[in-house]
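not sure who needs this but someone in the group chat was asking about Anti-sigma factor antagonist from Streptomyces sporangiiformans so here u go. i didnt clean anything up, its just raw.
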Amino acid sequence: MHIRGDHAELVVGGRLDVVSAADARTVLHSAVDDGAGDLVLDLSELDSWDATGLGVIMGAHRRAGRCGRTLVLRGVPPQMQRLLVATRLHRILAIEGGIGVESLPRV
């Protein structure tokens, strides 16, 4: 997993899973704490995530809210969009461009 960017926009790549969760959490929390306004999390380079990785995203979302910021997901890959819909988290998280639920393939 790699994360690059600053306190306004971060690009996450590789796998966001139990192995990388602690490092990702540290970077995301620092970005939330050090910035102002929306924090854009670009997931277009993300290969996969597991429940732990999704928990890191949700934790950053909650932390951003407590700091008066909004965590905005950008470039969510289709397989991850399906997971967000299945868990109904697409209704909670700010997703740039939204998710066209009707256009996602059935699993």
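also The mean pLDDT is 90. if thats useful
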